[in-house]
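Repro:
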Amino acid sequence: MSAAEGPPLSLPQQIGCLEQHFGVRLAPLLSATGGRFHAARLHGDTLILDAALSRWALRPDVSPFAFEPATPEGRRGTVLVVEGDSRHHPFPPFTDLDWWMLEDWPDGDWSALPAAPQGTPSSLPALRPRRHVFQLQPPEAPAPAPPASATEWAAFLVASGVLALLTALGMRAVLWSLPGGWLLLWALPGLFVLAVGLTGLARQLASLRRRPSGLASALDQLAVTCDAQFTVGDPFGVTVQAARLGDHPLPPMVMARVVQYTLPGHEGTALAGANAAPVSAGLHVTYGVTVHAERRLADRVDWDDAALWALELVDGSEPYVRILLPSPHPPCPLPLVYRPDRATQISMLLAGCGDELILKAYNGPSASSGLARHGEAVYHDDFTEAECRAVFTVSIQEVATAAWERGWLATVLQVQPDSGEGTRHLVFDEGEYRVVDTERFWQPVVYASPEAREALEGFLVRQPWAPWLAGTEGLLDARTAPGLVDHPQAH
């Protein structure tokens, strides 16, 4: 039975169906406004998921670029912009873009989802057997494994018999040399054969004892304890106690992370990581680790009851300890302690200091800028999108009006855009104002208008702080005609 014929599936379950069908992980995933359509790159092709109708489509030789609200001709809907179509010129550094109106596709172009994964994950993914996960100097020689099968036992007995014979012959040669004279010539080969036989027999007998090495024994004594409840946004304490191996602490450093698993076989989403140096010595070495998942990550994780949360200790990128954690609750919104007035909001946004305004709103007017969490202060890497929007009471239209009245256009207008990658510029060229998005090899014009006021609004709605303000989506729609104008310009 296909997934479409069964009970409705959530978005993670639909993605899991496709990942299981194609045998790959679909990441990163582009999502359209409203959450109905999603797109991902699949082996140089574009895979599109219609989550509302549980169906998918695959288009070859193109890569998903972005979702737009309209086509360049002004047709509105869910438009997927793709790049790299080989029917156009495939020569770098220029790449053709194409716009697909997904609602217009006939039903015959879509396929039903494959069979859904059976059940929900009841346990975490199995760990790869890795006992010797830490490099110690000098490296420990591996102990020989004892024989297990009948063939191995036969080879073991034959080898032991040959070594015993060599030992006996070496001993006999040494005894012949005892009278002295010409018989002393037997001493040199006798001692050599005797040494080879005795060493081989000793190794054979030692291999019969299944004794773990010192490193494996120390790893077996690794003890991990953690706080009772993991909460996104709050420090999560982890204590790791490891036995010492000689003069070497084991492990030399502890790296911890919290991972969420949502589907069977899924690689998981790492939320946070931290490492620590040893804090005490003796027979055991104790490490104190603090794991902190930023609250802004709460917008990107799945809070479904089927999701599993785990604490992992990792060596490089591979986990060697995995502990199931109780599922945390979504973080509660932070309370506002200071709300700036409307004039301050407009001035700070036009000055490019919107993130500093958010910082002060949740920590007080005297809060200083920063990018981490210190004590009880929450810094702007820690805010969710909803908390950022809660700070501002002005709309994007008010900011645009204030910018126009203050002559802000003259401060941002440039003759030609500079070569800074990943930035937007407002330029005047060939009798029109253009909003240029600088990329690596080209500079596409994302909006153009002969009217200075409209160009200024088109520039403002594409600022990083624009999604925090009310009315942005409506003004962005109004400032999207004539749509994305492709004007590639080589640097």
